[in-house]
Design goal:
13 helices, 11% strand, two-stranded antiparallel ribbon, two-stranded antiparallel sheet, 407 residues, hpI Integrase, Chain A, 2 domains
């Protein structure tokens, strides 16, 4: 895809497929903003006669610089769509992408992965709201609710700082978080991130009965629970199916014996009665009880436990003086990032390689990518290596700091 700000002819942004055919709707949107100077917003208004509220679209005036910014941010989003590795997400059908995926771009991609500042993220958010509101207003498309997740707001603000937040959480720090959970469900979900490298959305990928996925019948967790007694091992393989894994990248999870025992304990003692085949189900008292936990459950739980732990640590500074300093901007994804860093470091030790010498062709890189479900080809594949080379440096520095504190 190409995006060009055509100041000489049309005076606005244009978007082209690689064969120079226009991506029609974005081009029409840019034409609309340029010619009219308007943007479409979604507003709540009070009806004076009834006292109730109504929601409606309204055109508001925007200046030249905002028009340029809206077009630029839309183009960046379209490039992300083009790179998104899933057959149901394509540039040609970008207007039909569900709000869930657009919010993933805003939160997981811009805030967590690219570490964009709050200012930049708000520009992207306002631009995408304007574009999808325009589609709803003029083409009767479904309204899409786009927003920054509450648990990511602190991280977006932290990204404004010159000192970027440390995303690596030491094993002892992760254990502290697990220890302060309020239920087995919360502990399993947090450990899935820190010990298995699961994304928050992938917590819905754990099934009790055997299931069919990716061309085979796969062992469900009940089968693994039986193996705990029939053939005790240090770890057990579980197939995370492509329909629950991000980008459709199925992968093998290596569940430790202790973690599998925790899952079984949750299943037998805490899990509410449910017809669902998902291991992890909501225990809420509302209509969702017994249904699979939401894709954001991991993020929301981490945010809650982090606030609780920060309060405990601030009130007992002497007792926690030897621990890593946490930041209220830490998020669930940092558990996965920490898991990936540990895998990368272990592979470097096993291969007797210095982490700074690792390349995209290295077995260390390929194995780390496999364990995390990352692509090992494509133009952005090398970014994975760079992330974990830097993270290994952070890991060593944190271990030194903690060791010095404990002397």
């Amino acid at each position: 895809m190409q995006r060009i700000c055509d100041k000489l002819q049309s005076g606005h942004w244009i978007y082209l497929y690689d064969d120079d055919v226009p991506v029609l709707l974005p081009c029409l949107y840019s034409r609309y903003t340029h010619i009219t100077g308007f943007s479409v917003v979604y507003k709540k208004k009070r009806v004076e006669t009834t006292g109730s509220f109504e929601f409606l679209f309204e055109e508001v005036e925007i200046g030249d610089s905002v028009q340029y910014e809206r077009g630029q941010q839309l183009g960046l989003f379209l490039e992300w769509v083009e790179e998104y590795d899933h057959r149901s997400v394509t540039l040609a059908w970008h207007s039909a992408i569900p709000a869930e995926l657009i919010n993933e771009y805003i939160n997981e991609y811009l805030i967590v992965k690219l570490q964009k500042s709050e200012v930049v993220v708000n520009k992207a958010l306002n631009s995408l709201r304007s574009y999808f509101n325009w589609l709803a207003f003029f083409f009767d498309a479904n309204y899409k609710k786009l927003f920054i997740f509450s648990e990511y707001k602190a991280l977006a603000r932290a990204n404004n700082k010159s000192n970027v937040i440390v995303k690596y959480l030491l094993p002892a720090t992760r254990e502290l978080l697990y220890r302060h959970t309020d239920s087995l469900l919360e502990e399993v979900v947090l450990r899935n991130g820190g010990e298995l490298g699961c994304r928050t959305s992938e917590n819905a990928g754990f099934y009790l009965d055997n299931f069919e996925a990716d061309g085979k019948i796969r062992d469900g967790l009940k089968s693994l629970f039986n193996k705990l007694r029939e053939s005790p091992e240090e770890e057990y393989k579980y197939h995370l199916p492509s329909f629950d894994a991000k980008y459709g990248s199925a992968r093998t999870l290596y569940i430790s014996r202790n973690h599998l025992l925790l899952m079984e304990r949750y299943y037998t003692t805490e899990r509410p009665e449910s017809d669902s085949n998902h291991l992890l189900v909501s225990n809420s008292r509302n209509h969702t009880k017994g249904e699979a936990i939401s894709k954001r459950y991991g993020s929301a739980t981490f945010s809650k436990i982090l606030k609780k732990l920060l309060k405990v640590m601030s009130e007992n500074k002497l007792a926690y003086s030897g621990y890593q300093t946490l930041d209220r901007a830490n998020v669930y994804h940092h558990l996965r990032h920490s898991f990936g860093t540990d895998i990368f470091h272990e592979q470097c030790v096993k291969a007797k390689k210095n982490y700074e010498s690792i390349t995209t062709e290295s077995r260390v890189f390929i194995e780390t990518a496999r364990r995390l479900g990352h692509k090992v080809d494509g133009k952005n594949a090398g970014q994975t290596t760079k992330i974990y080379i830097h993270a290994c440096g952070q890991r060593e520095a944190l271990l030194r700091d903690v060791a010095n504190e404990q002397r």
